[in-house]
Design a protein that fits this description.
Largest sheet of chain B: none
Number of helices of chain B: 6
Structural class of chain B: mainly alpha
CATH topology of the largest domain in chain A: Rossmann fold
Oligomer: heterodimer
Strand content of chain B: under 5%
Distance between the termini of chain B: 22 Å
Number of helices of chain A: 6
CATH class of the largest domain in chain A: Alpha Beta
Structural class of chain A: alpha/beta
Distance between the termini of chain A: 29 Å
Shape of chain A: globular
Radius of gyration of chain B: 19 Å
Number of strands of chain A: 7
């Protein structure tokens, strides 16, 4: 599979890329196609995830901090929910590779920022792509139904604080899957937002907004997606 | 799908919908048991990546400032709820409530494949 990734220009000067699931659970899986593509292009790519599993309770694995552990197939335990562990297992079973999945325990912002800093330092990361399964990470917070933005916001905040990492991107996969997201809000900027300067690629609804218009707008984004869209 | 098999009680709705869409399914198609009974709208938009400049996304998020100084999850959750309560709900510019409601309740063609 070849992906026509529009971000390669931005990653030109990068060597070590971290792909991190932002919303917890399975989000890291949404980054796998990018992972394989970038790996085939010769980048050193690493995987991380905000985890819903009991990371702080792990005694094995590569422990960087109390709440940041590198999960591999070496873990001794039986799990009924641990997507990161099963992903490591899949890499081992299907591809014969030992891949460490770095797991952040769900914490408040301060520990999460520190954990990100520690991981960036540990792996020598110079680019981060945060991956969201779904699109609720793009919500502003003043929508009636923003989806499950809590974890996304925490991760977003953490990586936004890592000013020393030159390239930081968000990737969303799965537009339209989350039933609890107010999609019409997605394509406009809140008047309360700090992004006041209109920029190329931003989408607004016209006054006579109807379904066809929405679809037409979506098509516009698709056509302009050869470059990163500034929200 | 390997991971779904390893933890059969907890398949991912997002991942399964992306898989369905990438396979060319459309509408109310259910790959996993967990979504049975709900109304899915599998579409070709689902397997597409949308890339954004992360600091720009962070700038538009109105909740980050309230989360910044939190240590525990509970603290962060409370701070976010508090911040949400102080924000008036945004109205869609130019769209009447009826149009928005219509968008939400739009019926889909069920079980239409390709």
């Amino acid at each position: 599979m070849n992906l026509n990734l529009p971000i390669l220009d931005m990653l030109k000067g990068s060597r070590n890329i971290l792909i991190a699931g932002m919303g917890g659970g399975f989000d890291v899986l949404s980054g796998l196609p990018i992972y394989f593509e970038l790996e085939s292009l010769g980048f050193d790519v690493h995987l991380a995830n905000l985890s819903f599993s009991d990371i702080a309770g792990l005694t094995d694995g590569e422990v960087l901090t109390d709440t940041l552990v590198g999960v591999t197939t070496d873990l001794q335990g039986v799990y009924d929910y641990f997507p990161e562990y099963f992903l490591a297992e899949w890499f081992y079973d299907e591809r014969n590779e030992e891949v460490t999945i770095w797991c952040f325990e769900k914490t408040g912002a301060r520990p999460l920022i520190k954990n990100y800093q520690r991981l960036v330092q540990h792996l020598g990361i110079d680019a981060i792509i945060q991956v969201d399964g779904g699109v609720d990470s793009l919500m502003h917070g003043d929508e009636p139904q923003p989806g499950t933005i809590f974890e996304d916001s925490l991760s977003l905040l953490a990586v936004n604080e890592l000013k020393t990492v030159p390239v930081r991107l968000t990737a969303c996969l799965g537009l339209g899957i989350e039933p609890e997201v107010d999609y019409p809000y997605l394509f406009e900027t809140s008047p309360n937002s700090q992004n006041r300067v209109p920029s190329k690629g931003r989408v607004r609804f016209s006054k006579k907004c109807h379904r066809t218009a929405i679809l037409r707008r979506l098509h516009c984004i698709f056509l302009t997606s050869s470059r990163t869209i500034q929200v | 799908m390997y991971i779904f098999d390893q933890q059969p009680d907890y398949p991912s709705v997002i991942a399964s919908s992306v898989i369905s869409a990438a396979r060319g399914e459309y509408g109310n198609y259910h790959l996993i048991k967990r979504t049975q009974g709900s109304n899915l709208r599998i579409s070709p938009l689902m397997p597409m990546y949308w890339f954004f400049d992360l600091p720009a996304v962070a700038r538009q998020n109105l909740l980050l400032a309230s989360l910044r100084l939190t240590h525990t999850v509970d603290e962060a959750w409370t701070a976010m709820q508090k911040a949400r309560q102080t924000l008036p709900f945004r109205k869609i510019a130019g769209a009447s409530t009826a149009v928005v409601a219509q968008f939400h309740q739009r019926p889909t063609q069920s079980n239409m494949v390709r």
